[in-house]
Design goal:
Layout lengths: L1 E2 L5 E5 L2 E3 L5 H9 L7 E5 L5 H11 L32 H6 L5 E4 L17 E6 L2 H12 L12 H9 L8 H13 L8 E5 H6 L1 H11 L6 H10 L2 H6 L8 H5 L16 H15 L10
Parallel strand pairs: 4-5, 4-6, 6-7
Antiparallel strand pairs: 1-2, 2-3
The protein binds adenosine-3'-5'-diphosphate.
């Protein structure tokens, strides 16, 4: 475990800054897990809409037609397997072998550190959700401040922004993370077929259309009624008031629903900071074919 000069607690895993709860044994298990065709793994950089996506996946794959009684576990959290993390509900390899299908895995890893090792060799389907990095940076800043797993680190905004731009926050460099999955998803000779690349902004602006894309990717047939029901349940206000009480500290879980908008970076970035960030963005994203809406 490393505590930086600023008091930021983290761990280096394969050279990437990670939270302390990515322990060597959990990481090893996640890398060596062998997956099945019915498995779904949703992946994102932190604060990119993963809780939102997780609820969509759980509702779409729910064995019950009653969306109020959706989950396979007793809570949303318990319906997911977060293998790389020792934090919430560490499950053993045997637990995972016995878990009901379809298994839904959560991961915040860049492509080179994916669940199952190399996604190109895995039967699992991966759904990646990316979000414009200025909103990610702000959402992450608000969320991460004073958290136990970061050593109660409370940076000022300027410091956080510079750490984010240098890839020094937990889960590493945003550009590397998003671009690694983007490139893999486009590789039709490689893993592309089992990776669906989504964005927070598309999901926000065309919710039903994106849910249909997810369902088609997973070969799930959804009736119009089911689709409407899912759209209703995953609305921001609806999710915010739902009790997902999967964590001991419910308040901490409620922080997963802060604003849920596109462009809230504007309340945080100065004009100068936004310009500098946009220059970095242009340089790092150049030629990738990936671009984000940020307002
Ligand atoms: P903000 O902090 O900008 O509000 P994650 O779940 O990956 O940690 O991402 C959290 C971000 O997703 C937060 O962004 C949160 O508000 C937003 N979010 C969560 N549920 C949402 C929903 N149903 N609709 C829109 N945004 C949502």
């Amino acid at each position: 475990l490393i505590i930086s000069a600023h008091g930021y607690k983290h761990r280096l895993v394969d050279g990437v800054v990670m939270p302390p709860y990515i322990t060597p044994s959990r990481y090893h298990l996640s890398r060596t897990l062998s997956t099945k065709p019915t498995d779904v793994c949703f992946v994102s950089y932190p604060k990119s809409g993963s809780t939102w996506l997780s609820y969509i996946l759980v509702l779409l794959t729910s064995p019950s037609n009653d969306l109020n009684n959706y989950s396979r576990g007793d809570t949303l959290r318990n319906s997911l397997h977060w293998v790389e993390s020792s934090w919430t509900y560490p499950r053993s390899r045997e637990d995972l072998d016995m878990a009901a299908d379809p298994r839904i895995f959560k991961s915040h890893m860049p492509y080179s550190m994916a669940l199952g090792g190399d996604p190109a060799t895995q039967a699992c389907r991966y759904v990646y959700i990316a979000r414009n990095p200025k909103d990610v940076c702000v959402s992450y800043y608000r969320f991460e401040s004073g958290k136990s797993w970061s050593g109660f680190f409370q940076p000022d905004w300027e410091l956080w922004l510079s750490m984010f731009c240098r890839g020094e926050v937990q889960r590493g460099d945003w550009f590397e993370h998003a671009l690694s999955w983007w490139r893999a998803s486009r590789d039709r000779n490689g893993p592309g077929d089992n990776i669906l690349f989504l964005t927070f902004e598309d999901l926000k602006r065309d919710t039903a259309g994106q849910i249909e894309r997810i369902a088609a990717f997973l070969n799930i047939e959804v009736t119009k009624e089911r689709l409407e029901g899912v759209v209703r349940k995953i609305g921001f206000e609806e999710m915010q008031k739902t009790s997902f009480s999967g964590l001991k500290d419910v308040k901490e879980f409620n922080e997963f629903f802060r604003k849920g908008e596109i462009g809230s970076w504007k309340d945080q970035f100065t004009v100068r900071q936004a310009e500098a960030f946009d220059r970095l963005y242009a340089k790092r994203m150049e030629g990738s074919g990936l671009d984000f809406v940020s307002e």
